[in-house]
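Tutorial handout. Part one gives the primary structure; part two gives the three-dimensional structure as tokens.
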Amino acid sequence: MIPAQVGQGPLDTLQSTALEALAQAESFFITFLRPWNFYQIGIALFLFVIAHLIAQGVSPRMRKWMRSREGWPTWRLRVLLVLQHRLRMIFFVILIWHAIGIMQQVTWPSRSYLLIVIAKLASAWLGIALSTRLIRNPALRSLLRYAAWIWVTIWILGLSDETVAVLDNVAIQLGESRLSVWLILQGLLLLAVLVALARFVAGTSAASIRRNANLSPSMQVLAVKFLQVSLYGMAFFVALKLIGVDFTGLAFLSGAIGVGLGFGLQKVVSNLVSGIIILLDKSVKPGDVISLNDTFGWINALGARYVSITTRDGKEYLIPNEDLITGQVVNWSHSNEFVRLDIFFGTSYGDDPHLVRRIAVEAALSVSRVLSHRPPVCHIVGFGDSSVDYILRFWISDPTGGLTNIRGNVYLALWDAFKANGISIPFPQREVRVVNETLPPLEDRTPPAPGDGT
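Part two.
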């Protein structure tokens, strides 16, 4: 790295560093234009074409062989699939290192210098491409991959000191803190690595927490959310600490930002706090069947800001946590999974009510979802204008299967049972009587005279 001279400003230092880098680049290109270097480039291109042809022949056979490996673990097949996608680069790295070994035996070492640089770059790029496949997030994986490729290329070409000097000289002064481009890049790289590590640890720990049968579903969600927030927050502050950021200088700024966010994000904070309360008091949990206003469905997931509810028609509602705290919620499976349903019907006065009650209970038990260990009951609830009114009550244990469909199945069972036993279901009837039957026929009636007021 080029040291800054005494009394030299940041712009002067940046200019001198850039001129030095340009001089080194000019020297590199002059060396690059030597005839033997063109021979090395030609050798590298020839080896790349050979590697491409070999990969084109091996890749289909390798894929066919992988498809025949039944019973293999999924992780092993994924590793083979990643290698299959990188066959061309793998063969190129193998061929170029063998070519370098042969050339160093038959000619001067300087005549394989450019091939060594190309081989190092290809090996580094291959290693980075394979190692970054462990990161599941595509955006984070691409960021780390390209950042690592750029830095490794600069380091192999011997331009790392000059690059660091240029990036470090582009800086701004914030009080007693100096913020440079190099410092920002270091922070972003450390943050990406630590976030990836925190994501991996959080995912592994979350799987262990969900397998713990001693924790309720709501406590499992709370533990997972707390672990994720803790790990991501720790990754952020550790990254800032490692690059030397002074937190005391940011105390006032963070306080002002916190006050502004408190006023601007009242609803967001309210939903976050409501989500924590829901998880702690266990009023709702994943899998519960709830009714909220006109929404009926089961809870699919508990989020930090909202609750995901899936209805029978396939719609997914995102209900803010605050609505579940401040509004009235009907939880069909809060303390247990049993749900009682009521249906109403009527029969004619000529049917025996004792027989009707027994047939109704048997008809309800014939439906598969109706519980037999909690037997249905049927009661008379009134004497209507044209029917004796009954209520049939029965229990189910799977409200997620729907309520309208089970009611419809019980009604159909009642219809079939009543039809088989001769029990009629009355319907309102009206009788019209003509009071004065002595009126003359219509054709014998004479119309009133004009001007007659009748």
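Part three, for discussion. Residues 1-8 have pLDDT under 50 and may be disordered. The longest helix spans residues 35-67.
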